[in-house]
Amino acid sequence: MELKITFTGICAFVANTKASRCKAVVLLPDGDSGEVKAGKAVDGKPLFRHRAYVKFKANHLSESERLKISDRLEVIRYLKAERVTIRPVGSLVDLTSNLSTIANLDKVVPGFGEVDRQFLGEKPLRLAAQVLLEHGYLVASPPAFQWAFPNNVSRSDIITGPLSHEVTLTIAGLTSVDLIVTPFDGAPETLSLVRRDGGTVEVCIANLCDENPLRWPTVREPLIDNDFRWYYELVARRDDLGRRLSSLGLPVPHPIDAKPNGQGMNCLGATLKATDFYLDNFLPPMEAMD
Predict the structure, then answer these.
(1) For residue 277, is pLDDT > 90?
(2) Which end of the chain is more exposed for a tag (fewer CB within 10 A), N or C?
(3) Is 118 helix (H, G, I), strand (E, B) or coil?
(4) Which residues fall within 8 angstroms of residue 101, CB to CB, at 6 or more apart?
């Protein structure tokens, strides 16, 4: 059996430079304030509402065979101030990754790409979710088209290039897997998933704009990704960045010669500067994965 988790929308990837079990963390800013405009970014522009959730097929639940659940039924479990961990059972390898086509905040705003360490803590504020990664292969999807970032902070050449909308984590050689969702101040909830035919369990972890949170197909051309401003809410020197800005505001990606993508997606992922952190105490115990 294989587990495939697709990350889409406003998801920030932070690699761990510390030698520990947790190799990386994915941070999903909390954009669900109940209002269409969830606040203001450091440049005074609006931050629009986003919804974070986990989605998977209901017939991949371990109880689905007994309950005779249709393969057309999907489960959406919304995330709010929660930590997601993965308990795979099978032959496991440590996490490796290739995120070279994900927007790199440390290059877009040099000197400001380091994450605010409170987001790496036990009870972070203003996060919909922390997702802890230990095993598998993490890779960015093939880029759909080219984007450009203004240089109003870097003051160097304008950054252009192909960027990916999605990142996929694949863990192969499994017999079963649990997704454990734990409120930062509460008890864990376990979602046990399995494919008895040995196929792929597909999971989506998303943080998508309120305009189209379920990613219904569209024919609209990609727009300037103004929601990229959410990533600047995660940086350590947010106020210093605000003082550095020119009248153009925060650098957000602009599409170049893009065609309609038909996937109802526009928000890009991003990486923050790799740093050391310790979240191993929130991972499932080693003996549980034998």
Answers:
(1) yes
(2) C
(3) helix
(4) 140, 142, 143, 161, 162, 163, 164
